């Protein structure tokens, strides 16, 4: 009988699935559909997330919202193929059609929705949307929208391609 994955078991394992320490933005998986290749998760924006990003008017940085969507996508990859993606992490390498329609501020509970649109051996592409969860319901309009987020899939602890040096710059 195949092992059944539950939301509780996924949420208990988030730190292992997304090994980003204090930069892990996905807090709780709320729903997933492996046939549709979609996942929904939440993130509570804190002052720490916004530290220094507009003093006096803290705003959750847009790049971090894109990173949060890719992290949610990494959980989806793991759920689709656990053995293949057990020790791998998607690293954001490109963004297309990323829009911000409303500021995300400390105290906001964000509802992240991702859909896997393309999967290759070493890369994945996702569509993503972020909504603000207010008064026990999800807002009607997305506050952030990404047509395509591309991630390179690498070993979790091997980021050598990101640290290549240019021989011309070594002096």
CATH superfamily: Hotdog Thioesterase
Count of individual helical segments: 5
Q: Helical residue percent?
A: 10-25%
Percent of sequence in beta strands: 35-45%
Can you identify the CATH class?
Alpha Beta
Biggest sheet features: 8 strands, antiparallel
Q: Which fold name corresponds to the CATH topology?
A: Thiol Ester Dehydrase, Chain A
The N- and C-terminal alpha carbons lie at a distance of 60 Å
Low-confidence stretches: 158-167
The total number of structural domains is 1
The CATH architecture term is Roll
User: On the 0-100 scale, what is the average pLDDT?
Assistant: 87
GO molecular function: lyase activity
Protein name: Beta-hydroxyacyl-ACP dehydratase
Keywords: Lyase
InterPro entries: FabA_FabZ (IPR013114), HotDog_dom_sf (IPR029069)
Describe this structure in words.
This is Beta-hydroxyacyl-ACP dehydratase. The structure is a single chain. With 171 residues, the chain is α+β, with helices and mostly antiparallel strands. It has a single domain (7-169), classed as Hotdog Thioesterase (Thiol Ester Dehydrase, Chain A). Helices cover 22% and strands 36% of the residues. It is built from 5 helices and 8 strands; from the N terminus they run ααββαααββββββ. The chain has helices spanning 7-12, 14-17, 47-50, 62-80, 82-85; strands at residues 28-33, 38-44, 88-96, 99-100, 109-119, 123-134, 137-138, 144-155. Strands 1, 2, 3, 4, 5, 6, 7 and 8 form an 8-stranded antiparallel β-sheet that branches. The chain is globular. The termini are far apart.
């Amino acid at each position: 009988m195949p092992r059944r994955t539950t939301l509780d078991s996924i949420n208990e394992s988030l730190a292992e699935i997304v090994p980003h320490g204090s930069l892990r933005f996905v807090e709780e998986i709320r729903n997933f559909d492996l046939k549709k290749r979609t996942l929904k998760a939440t993130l509570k924006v804190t002052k720490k997330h916004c530290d220094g990003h507009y003093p006096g008017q803290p705003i959750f940085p847009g790049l971090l919202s894109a990173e949060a969507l890719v992290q949610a996508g990494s959980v989806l990859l793991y759920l689709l193929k656990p053995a293949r993606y057990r020790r791998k992490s998607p690293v954001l390498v490109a963004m297309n059609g990323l829009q911000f329609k409303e500021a995300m501020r400390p105290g906001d509970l964000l509802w992240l929705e991702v859909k896997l649109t393309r999967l290759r051996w070493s890369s994945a592409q996702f569509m993503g949307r972020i909504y603000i969860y207010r008064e026990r319901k999800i807002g009607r309009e997305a506050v952030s929208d990404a047509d395509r987020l591309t991630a390179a899939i690498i070993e979790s602890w091997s980021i050598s391609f990101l640290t290549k040096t240019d021989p011309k710059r070594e002096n």
